[in-house]
Amino acid sequence: MGLLRQPLFYILWVKKLGTTLDLKNRIKKDWKNFSEFIRQGAFLIGNCWKQVLLFIFIYAFIGALARNLVGDTMKWCLEKILGTKYIGPEHLIHAATSFRAILLVPVFVIIMSFISIMEIEGLIYGFSSAKRGMKPSLTGMMAASLYVCKKSAKPRNWIIILYVVVLLPFTKVLSLSNASALMEIPGFVEQYISDDTLYNFLYTALYILLVFVEFTFIFSLNYYVCEDIDFITACKKSRTLIKNNIFKTMFSLAVLYVVVHIIIVSISSVVSANFQDLMKVIRGSEGTLSEVYRLANTIYLVKRFFAAIAYPMTNIAALVTLYYRYMDEKKLKNTHPMVFSQSSPSVRQKLIAAVIVLTTIIYGLMEVRPYIGSMTREPKEPGIVAHRGDSVMAPENTMPAFELALAEEPEWVEFDVHETKDGVIIVSHDDNLKRVTGKKLYVHNLTYDQLMKLDCGSWFSDEYAGLKFSTFDEVLKLFKDSNINLQVEIKPTRYDKELEEKVLQVINENDMHDRCIITSLKSAPLKRIKELDPTMITAYSMYIAWDHVEDVPWSDYFTIEESHVTPEMVADIHAAGKKCFAWTVNSEETVQRLIDCNVDGILTDDPKMMWNALDKADYTGGIRKFINILADRLAAGY
Q1: Are residues 353 and 491 in the same domain?
Q2: Which of 66, 291, 396, 431 is most buried, judged by most C-beta within 10 A?
Q3: C-alpha–C-alpha distance, residues 636 and 638, integer Å
Q4: Same-domain pairing of 149 and 298
Q5: Residue 130: which of 310, 314, 309, 317 has the closest Cα?
Q6: Cβ(631)–Cβ(614) below 8 Å
Q7: Span 364-393, mean pLDDT?
Q8: Is the pTM here over 0.90, yes or no?
Q9: How many angstroms separate the CA atoms of 455 and 465, rounded?
Q10: Is residue 309 part of a domain?
């Protein structure tokens, strides 16, 4: 999420302009200042773009190496501590009660935050050197980043870790480092928050507060590397420097985002078009429409790759430009300026660098090996799974949503079931009905008759006012004469009496045994289903999935949160004779990656969008598939 998507900034800026008597002159003056800001930023990039690009690539490899090494070590340690071959949702509770497991999280966060800090501060120092008239060097930038790393290890400076780990990834307003992007809030958590009015309000309020905190102390990063001071002092100096300039800074960076975004899209389009011409020569022409779709997909991947490089570079150049402009305006100077050696590296330093590069290359080849193997597997079109019906066009888990899904003919429809107080199985995602009824009532506390008096449609739109909940039996009867299969997610509570038994009973009464699979985020219901009926297909729904999930004996399929899906994981699941679905995808941009991973189905709230995305997708496999996967991993900051 860039500044372009933050309307708050524009509203505040327009409000500020509205208080100015001479609006025309103010706009003219601000445009002149912005033009000078762009010119100075471009001058900085032009003076040291080679060193900066090399520095970014070095830290991209270091970040990938550290993330994978530390991540793999964490997985191995957790598996040893918990005595398992894989890590899934049921292990998180056990991990949360294990002191040894808890210690692993801060270790990972600290390592990744230090890499992010070193990358940001090294880039700031490089641009600052150019601004002060010195020729930047890779040696000086590396020395500055190592100096900051050493300084940040002191307890007084630990607060910078919170700034980099919490503020930058949480707000997503300013991309300064690809390493910090790895610590963003998972998409399914953001979706859960947005679905709850109270949580959404609190999240928005916290977001606005943190944005202002981030910008209040944004120049602490400059002070921290440019002066021999601690981070708390740097924060105090930043607050003084940005006083009366915070909205100007927000606006400047917002417009810069637009400019850079347009440039990235333009360059990506040209590069992708040339790449497509080359691929057409290699493969031969396959039709105009197909080539247009492939070009669009390639542009997206190339754009992500360029964005991973361009945004940190331009944003940090902009911060350095504004930092020195405000310093000049307020007649301030760096009281303890830092200058690092710009000389060529010694033989010892070159040897150390060579060892690091060689290690990175070897480990990188090991990481790439699974994707080379995936080239031999031609991707297939995954099935569409209508998540809670067509929940974009109608209230989720209701008959109108299911009727729309029925007309759209996905391969699967997914929905959730609960047990009422009097033992009726009804369709609802939540036990707490406040989100969809406005009343804090619980399914397990209500009889079926009490439940049917509630309105579960008005929250979506007035068109669905008075809509009632559906029973599991009604939904099965709706789909019985179609070719659509069903994914039934059991939502257990401690008040359930015979939830699993009754779910199986309703399925068998409707003769739908071979067209239903039963899913759950918890292991206990699936184990119980297998005890009751070993032939019933079960699917473990996982918001975290590490290592050999295919070894789970009581799960025939898996539905995995899309960010955890990898080609090697899907290949292992298929090798075990099982299937893999990805949830929940509401953006076309994610679809091609999941196709290349060879998933069997994709859960979506918007089946029409998914049909369109699948029609556009590329199923050729081979080198194209390998490049797509690799580019996506690099663009994601891996």
Answers
A1: no
A2: 396
A3: 6
A4: yes
A5: 317
A6: no
A7: 76
A8: no
A9: 7
A10: yes
Separation CA 587–CA 190 (nearest Å): 15
**Which single residue is written with the structure tokens 């197909």?**
290
> How far are the Cα atoms of 129, 160, 161, 234, 322 from residue 231, in angstroms, in the given order?
20, 7, 10, 5, 19
3-state DSSP of 623-635 = HHHHHHHHHHHHH
Q: How confident is the model at residue 387 (pLDDT cuts 50, 70, 90)?
A: very high
User: For residues 44 and 320, is the Cβ–Cβ distance under 8 A?
Assistant: yes
What residues does 488 pair with on adjacent strands?
415, 518
- 157 neighbors 231 (Cβ within 8 angstroms): yes
Higher-confidence residue of 129 and 346: namely 129
Instruction: Write out 37-59 in H/E/C secondary structure.
Output: HHHHHHHHHHHHHHHHHHHHHHH
For residues 307 and 399, state if they share a domain: no
Give bridge partners of residue 365 from the DSSP assignment. none
Which of 195, 41, 5 shows the shortest CA–CA distance to 123? 41
pLDDT at 66: 74
Total domain count for the chain?
2
The single-letter DSSP state of residue 20 is -
> Tokens 């860039």 sit at which residue?
2
How much is the pLDDT for 577? 94
Residue 201 has pLDDT above 70, yes or no: yes
Residue 248 lies in a domain: yes
Q: Which residue has the higher pLDDT, 106 or 286?
A: 106
Are 283 and 395 within one domain? Answer: no
Backbone torsions φ then ψ of 224, nearest 5 degrees? -65, -35
| Residue 448 domain flag | no
548/179: higher pLDDT: 548
3-class SS of residue 242:
helix
Instruction: Let me know whether 214 and 151 are in one domain.
Output: yes
> Six-digit token pair at 92?
């998180």
26 within a domain of the structure (yes/no): yes
Question: Which structural domain, as residue segments, surrounds residue 596?
Answer: 388-417+474-635
Per-residue pLDDT, 353: 65
Same domain for 337 and 256: yes
Q: Residue 459 contacts by C-beta under 8 Å, 6 or more apart in sequence? A: 395, 435, 436, 437, 438
The CA distance from 372 to 368, in Å, is 6
Tokens found for residue 631: 């580019």
Same domain, 401 and 305: no
CB count within 10 Å of CB 362 equals 10
Task: Identify the CATH number of the domain in which residue 627 sits.
Answer: 3.20.20.190
Do residues 325 and 412 share a domain?
Answer: no
DSSP string, 385-421: EEETTTTTTS-TTSHHHHHHHHHH--SEEEEEEEE-T
pLDDT digits over 269-322, tens only? 666 555 555 555 544 544 444 555 555 555 656 666 677 778 889 999 999 999
Q: Number of H helices and number of E strands within the chain? A: 24, 12
473 residue type, one letter: D
Please, what's the b/e burial string for 425-440 (b: 16 or more CB within 10 A of its CB; e: otherwise)? bbbbbbbebebbbeee
Q: Which token pair is 420? A: 């009422």
